[in-house]
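Format notes (please read before filing issues)

Several people have asked whether sequences and structure tokens are stored in separate files. They are not. Every record keeps both together, in the order shown below: the sequence lines, then the token lines. Line labels are part of the format and must not be stripped during preprocessing.
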Amino acid sequence: MKLAPTSMRGLAALVLLVSGCGAAPAASSGPTTCGPATVVVADTEVTPIGADPGSTLPVTVPSADGKQVTVDDARRILPVNLYGSIAEIVFSLGLGGRVVGRDTSTTFGVASHLPLVTPAGHDLSGEAILRLNPSVVLADGSIGPPEVLNQLRGSGIPVVLIDDEQTLAAVPRHIRAIAAALGVPAAGEKLVARVDAEIAEARANAPTGGKPPRVAFLYVRGTAGVFLMAGKGAGSDDMIRAIGAVDAGTEIGLEKFRPLTSEGLINAAPDVILVMSEGLESVGGVDGLLKLPGVAQTPAGQQRRIVDMDDGLLLNFGARTGRAVQALATAVHGTCS
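Then the structure lines:
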């Protein structure tokens, strides 16, 4: 069963209901009594605002590490960070044809052919980058090591760091900083207007009646033995609030990410558990997730209300953020028919 895409402009996310309702629910604090067993939100393609607008250079811009950086050539761009959001913004500005490489988190289709500069996990390889001969590198504090970034600067490559705040409010600021560094400020304003409109529409479409559902985001990597619960400042809290829901981790006093405990999750009493798609796969799907401490004892676990979203979209906070919020709202608030 597929839920029809929303009317949001350019929305390509598909919300696929994999299976039906779970068993009859126990008492729940949420507004619904039955929900999907698991929802997969497919990745969306990046849509440029137009053709390459051409750069007006040189420009001198502030870097997030306090340096002033002059960019005089943006013909070979290397955008890298932990979330893939910088590359997403560069492509959305219409500059995808200038990008020479990618990080592990840049997974959208039009960038998938580019060579990796993070061959071992999320660490940058100086040698791999230098082989690509970039004329400018855009990064943030989420990626490193710092020695590689210093090596690049030492070789004469301008490196501009963007601040790494992962919130909805920071998205326009990141777009403007990237557009300024690449000499395309007008294109940046067009992209900001589009993203702001998509986020506003997603917020406006969030249900306002009844008691909002409690949503807990779990970061799980079964192969690495990593099981965390998110709270205030993790980024997921901002996405959850944007869909008119309550972040269960924040409600019990968690900040950022904390080790998952049975007591903590049961106290959080989520109506819905949110995970990344690869994380859910790493623990053996919904059945495997239900074996983690406390999950089966929550209203979400009892009703099998588990929502999983593509890793490259959920906490990306890039140019597709509005579409991600809309798709998440559809999944979380969806009920059985």
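For reference, the curators noted about this record: The first helix runs from residue 85 to 95. The chain has a mean pLDDT of 86.
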